[in-house]
Automatic annotation (TrEMBL):
Residues 4-131 form the AB hydrolase-1 domain. It comes from Platanthera zijinensis. Keywords: Hydrolase. GO terms for biological process: jasmonic acid metabolic process; salicylic acid metabolic process. This is Methylesterase 3. The gene is MES3.
Length: 210
């Protein structure tokens, strides 16, 4: 069975996935959540100990790099975790069966990764994300790497942090294999609608990772 790796957004940690991990494991899925650098149980702190996006994403990068040749994982990223997914997909497309963006930041293959931050800020008058200056200097993710992996977007219908219009904007600017919607889900669907989210993930694994 494919491994499922769950990636948190900014200001969270692996802990936020505890309901989903428990449900998936109970049903026989090899699911695990990871702490990115300076998050959750990781003792480091931002920005003193982790000064770059690459450092921040390193725990996920190392985990996927260690996947044996010929095996693939399913990645699920929430919010800012979508950019971490994109980095790993770009580096190891052959090791990712499918990538799931849960109300997540989903970049395209044309603009620098910071482009979606800038657009979100202009649409919602919100601060841009961590590492904005660094991300603004990074090249766009490649069509050969990031662009070659099957992407699925899960819309959280009642997300007040990233509203549905912005989620739809990302989908229109970077077409995906499939769009799902969790009705009544707020920004933290893994806590408010864990059962519905699990059903989405199970459907994705069955369709894209078997």
């Amino acid at each position: 069975m494919r491994r499922i790796i769950l990636v948190h957004g900014s200001c969270h940690g692996a802990w936020c996935w505890y309901k989903v991990v428990a449900m998936l494991r109970t049903q026989g899925y090899a699911a695990a959540a990871i702490d990115l650098a300076a998050c959750g149980a990781d003792p480091r702190r931002l920005p003193q100990d982790v000064s770059s996006f690459d450092e921040y994403t390193r725990p996920l990068m190392d985990l996927v790099a260690a996947v044996p040749d010929g095996e693939k994982v399913v990645l699920v990223g929430h919010m800012f975790g979508g950019l971490s997914l994109a980095s790993v997909m770009d580096a190891f497309p052959e090791k990712v069966a499918a990538a799931v963006f849960l109300s997540g930041m989903m970049p395209d293959t044309t603009h620098a990764p910071s482009y979606i931050d800038l657009t979100l800020a202009s649409m919602m008058i919100r601060p841009t994300s961590l590492f904005y200056q660094e991300l603004s200097k990074k090249p766009a993710f490649s069509k050969e790497g990031y662009g070659s992996v099957d992407k699925i977007y899960i819309i959280c219908e009642d997300d007040a942090a990233i509203d549905e219009d912005f989620q739809q904007w990302m989908i229109e600017n970077n077409p995906v294999k499939e769009v799902m919607k969790i009705r009544g889900a707020d920004h933290m669907a893994m806590l408010s609608k864990p059962k519905e989210l699990c059903e989405c993930i199970k459907s994705i694994v069955k369709k894209y990772a078997n």
